[in-house]
Structure to design on (229 residues):
């Protein structure tokens, strides 16, 4: 039972253009969502997050949008840069008070071309 | 601030052998997690510790996997005996547990190959 789904295994975008990575979830108990970026031979690195009480969170070139009624979130990267080439994981957790219980998607490999 | 440390980075063993992985979390982080990431999949939680107590080990195959976190700091994850399907990257993560923050910080992982 895949509770967090990233249906696009890969995405190729030209440098300077917008990258849009999508994520869907099925568990209505999820209240907090995170995006992680992973380079080869490294652990995932936290990128940006959003709480279910918001519909948008922005941090520099990265913006995450949440549509709670559709159980859908997306990560926008503008403008895309070659260094953004990595695997991006969407993760979700219910509000637990303190420590999170993350459920991850299967990842989307982003390639930013020159 | 030093990140999460893991060792070894790579390990190759034969099936039915045993193996152990070590993790040192970020200083001050109360919660420590072990994940298994199989190629092409996202990380899957195996076990979660808060200080030196187990919070969740529901997805840990307890017939072959064991983990401990002595003194609430370092942790070891052991597999005995290993199976072919245990080939994966084993990731350790830690978190600060401040209210309203849910970020986990990951180490570089240990890539295990079982032949």
């Amino acid at each position: 039972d895949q509770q967090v789904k990233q249906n696009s295994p890969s995405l190729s975008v030209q440098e300077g253009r917008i990258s849009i990575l999508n994520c869907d979830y099925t568990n209505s108990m999820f209240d907090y969502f995170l995006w992680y970026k992973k380079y080869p031979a490294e652990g995932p690195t936290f990128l940006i997050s959003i709480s279910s009480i918001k519909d948008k969170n922005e941090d520099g070139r990265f913006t995450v949008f949440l549509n709670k009624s559709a159980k859908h979130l997306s990560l926008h990267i503008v403008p895309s840069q070659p260094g953004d080439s990595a695997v991006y994981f969407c993760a979700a957790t219910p509000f637990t008070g303190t420590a999170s219980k993350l459920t991850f998607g299967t990842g989307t490999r982003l390639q930013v071309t020159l | 601030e030093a990140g999460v440390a893991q060792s070894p980075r790579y390990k190759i063993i034969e099936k039915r052998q045993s193996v152990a992985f070590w993790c040192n979390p970020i200083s001050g982080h109360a919660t420590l997690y072990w994940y298994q990431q199989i190629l092409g999949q996202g990380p899957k939680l195996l076990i979660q510790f808060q200080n030196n107590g187990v919070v969740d080990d529901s997805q840990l195959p307890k017939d072959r996997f064991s983990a401990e976190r002595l003194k609430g700091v370092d942790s070891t994850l052991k597999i005995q005996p290993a199976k072919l399907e245990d080939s994966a990257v084993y990731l350790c993560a830690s978190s600060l547990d401040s209210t309203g923050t849910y970020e986990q910080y990951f180490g570089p992982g240990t890539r295990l190959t079982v032949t």
Observations:
- The first strand of chain B starts at residue 5 and ends at 7.
- Chain B touches chain A through 27 residues (CB under 8 Å).
